[in-house]
Amino acid sequence: MQNSRYNLVHALLVSGVLLIAACSNGVGAFWHQFIYGLDKTLSPQVLSLSFLIETGFFGALIAGCWASTAALVNRQDSCESGPATAASNPNRSRAIVFTLKIAVPVILVALGLNAVGAKVVEWVFNVTDSQQELIKCFADPSFTLKHHVLMAGSVLLVAPVLEEVLFRGIVFRGFAKKLPLPLAMAISGFVFALVHVNAASLLAIWYLGLSFA
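The structure corresponding to this sequence follows.
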């Protein structure tokens, strides 16, 4: 990770901004949503607005971090030869094959941790319905096909693209620039889990954050 364009300052700054945004309504409100979920059901209008805000917020963080390093990276690239990039392709292919091999076990472990987390929350806080709001919306008959498409876009665009660039591309790599690799994985994964604001899935999402890193 020493050749990453991002450093510890980027990782701390992005983590801080994300956690402040998650607690924007106060620590008490964050804790209540973390355990019990939102007080009200998301309407189609609120969902659409939330999707736009989340996409813009994540995109702005990514763009800001990228812009802060663009000039430096361009200067470094101009001093390096081209064949070095081609030499990394075999490693990339091996990484893809390895990822495909472990995908199913990782998913199964995450599902198990999610079930355990839900049981723990139910036992400790007597909360039986701790699903994330997006999952509830898919079962809500008031949401039309276009809203389902919007939700699918959120799951398929915001999560795998923007979240991966932000959490693994910037936060994890930034921490790994100065910290031991396991610690960087653990911290970036925990921030990833906290931002999802759901106690039942905390362990599962933390584990996924570690696995993705």
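The mean pLDDT is 83.
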